[in-house]
Amino acid sequence: MSDVTAERAIPDTPPAEENYLTAGTSLASWLLTTDHKRVALLYMATITVFFFLGGAAAVMMRIELVTPQGDLLSDDAYNRAFTFHGVVMVWFFLIPSIPNILGNFLLPLMIGAKDLAFPRLNLLSWYIFVIAGILAIYTLLAGGVDTGWTFYTPLSTAFANGQVLAAAAAVFVAGFSTIATSVNFIATVHLLRAPGLTWLRLPLFVWAIYATSIVMVLATPVLAMVLLLIFAERAFGIPIFDPLRGGDPILFQHLFWFYSHPAVYIMILPSFGVISELVTCFARRRVFGYNFMVYAILWIALVGFLVWGHHMFVSGQSMLANLVFSFLSFVVAVPSAIKVFNWTSTLYRGQIVFDAAMIYALGFIGLFTIGGLTGLFLASVPVDVHVTDTYFVVAHFHYIMVGGAVSALYGGLTFWWPKITGRMHPESWARFAAILMFFGFGFTFFPMFIMGFLGMPRRYHIYAPEYQIWHVLASAGAVLLAVAYLLPMGYFGWSLFRGRRATANPWGATGLEWQTSSPPPKENFFAPPVVLQGPYNYHPEHAGPPSLEREPHEPQGGPTERAP
């Protein structure tokens, strides 16, 4: 069967009983589902709640920082606000967002599988995540924590106020959800690929989720171990980190950052996969240097475990250790640079379509490039000593983690929204939100580079008056950023009821997920696909801009066949 005939055998709008959204409409059918697509939507709802809870804490801080004096929040309340913001945004939004939402929904579709390898484990991981989130909310309602999201000792074990153990328990429990999901993804990629879908025919999004899952499985137990040590010292007085009783507080930093620097790549690697899919589709060109992109993803996952010490240049470690970690930090920047170069080369001479998803992707590249280049400043020991614990670090972290990850998440949701819901969103509003997010983010966080270089310490809410102008600019930018974050909630919600029905492949893309109906049937495909060629076969003769109703040139990897 030819690729055209195979595609047209799939109805654009399947019968209601074949739609995964209408397979069961009761609350129990959702709460007890083992369908990876429904579990992804459960994660989407939960993670969205935490995103706005963490964002509310950020709003409180930005309002407080408009003036040099503590007008709104007390010292203790401010400490608890930035701790809650950090804990929620890192462990309940940034780490799970793309893997648990887009990864859950798309991974089986992209490899031609009916579901994940362990569907019940997938649902269980969501319930564990919900329990962890309830513990996190409890810490806020019970008074909060004032340690910061890093839980540094001996502050967290001897001197901190608030619900330290409850907050640590929330992160500890969330780790079980992370590991369960990661094991599921790894097994799925190894065992359930469609016939003909070899390793070097996998979409880059699948490679990114696979590499992220490996990092999660290897790194998360280290975090669990260090949280248990905090519990042992704080609850039972076992001398582990307390220097007055022979403990070593620097040991905590080594253990924490051995997990937390790979966690940076847990947050950003899935974004690389999303952006790769968007750039190649809307440039109508095959990804430049596909093999190098794969190797760069794996390189980041490996070398990311070797650079934790660059967070500790001022902790008292030896100068030799500082130089080694500085060198490795520059080395790990190379694969990230390869990715930016390859995305740019993919865009070169492409028939670029500036739809909203592509604007999000271009915004990601801009924000990630700024964040990555400023990371090289922090990898240099002399510069890092100067800007350690200043707003320069805050700006760098947010450009990479928040600017990059959120742009990729919104870009991915915009791109795959027709596949998830079967409805088209209003393109003009989505473009406006994408542009506003890029500029709002710049106005919010770029001033922090300047004030950090000038010496403004982070985590202070009472500061010298000469920094006020920069804080006012940042707070004004945060208003724009908040609008950009809220807009998609409006137009996505509108599309569910008023949006035009989507065809199977509204963007003219080549992935396997676009070779089934929108939204997909419960078991993803009407007939199992067979892949015959590599990914991203956008040919020059088909390079024109796709219309919203355009059918694909060739499916994932070129022509596919349907197994009988």
Automatic annotation (TrEMBL):
<feature type="transmembrane region" description="Helical">
    <location>
        <begin position="251"/>
        <end position="275"/>
    </location>
</feature>
<keyword id="KW-0408">Iron</keyword>
<keyword id="KW-0813">Transport</keyword>
<feature type="transmembrane region" description="Helical">
    <location>
        <begin position="320"/>
        <end position="341"/>
    </location>
</feature>
<keyword id="KW-0472">Membrane</keyword>
<keyword id="KW-0479">Metal-binding</keyword>
<dbReference type="InterPro" id="IPR023616">
    <property type="entry name" value="Cyt_c_oxase-like_su1_dom"/>
</dbReference>
<feature type="transmembrane region" description="Helical">
    <location>
        <begin position="81"/>
        <end position="102"/>
    </location>
</feature>
<feature type="transmembrane region" description="Helical">
    <location>
        <begin position="123"/>
        <end position="145"/>
    </location>
</feature>
<dbReference type="InterPro" id="IPR000883">
    <property type="entry name" value="Cyt_C_Oxase_1"/>
</dbReference>
<keyword id="KW-0679">Respiratory chain</keyword>
<protein>
    <submittedName>
        <fullName>Cbb3-type cytochrome c oxidase subunit I</fullName>
    </submittedName>
</protein>
<keyword id="KW-0349">Heme</keyword>
<feature type="region of interest" description="Disordered">
    <location>
        <begin position="531"/>
        <end position="564"/>
    </location>
</feature>
<feature type="transmembrane region" description="Helical">
    <location>
        <begin position="397"/>
        <end position="417"/>
    </location>
</feature>
<feature type="transmembrane region" description="Helical">
    <location>
        <begin position="468"/>
        <end position="492"/>
    </location>
</feature>
<dbReference type="Pfam" id="PF00115">
    <property type="entry name" value="COX1"/>
</dbReference>
<dbReference type="InterPro" id="IPR036927">
    <property type="entry name" value="Cyt_c_oxase-like_su1_sf"/>
</dbReference>
<feature type="transmembrane region" description="Helical">
    <location>
        <begin position="165"/>
        <end position="192"/>
    </location>
</feature>
<feature type="transmembrane region" description="Helical">
    <location>
        <begin position="429"/>
        <end position="456"/>
    </location>
</feature>
<keyword id="KW-1133">Transmembrane helix</keyword>
<feature type="transmembrane region" description="Helical">
    <location>
        <begin position="40"/>
        <end position="61"/>
    </location>
</feature>
<dbReference type="InterPro" id="IPR023615">
    <property type="entry name" value="Cyt_c_Oxase_su1_BS"/>
</dbReference>
<keyword id="KW-0812">Transmembrane</keyword>
<feature type="domain" description="Cytochrome oxidase subunit I profile">
    <location>
        <begin position="30"/>
        <end position="532"/>
    </location>
</feature>
<comment type="similarity">
    <text>Belongs to the heme-copper respiratory oxidase family.</text>
</comment>
<feature type="transmembrane region" description="Helical">
    <location>
        <begin position="287"/>
        <end position="308"/>
    </location>
</feature>
<feature type="transmembrane region" description="Helical">
    <location>
        <begin position="204"/>
        <end position="231"/>
    </location>
</feature>
<feature type="transmembrane region" description="Helical">
    <location>
        <begin position="353"/>
        <end position="377"/>
    </location>
</feature>
<keyword id="KW-0249">Electron transport</keyword>
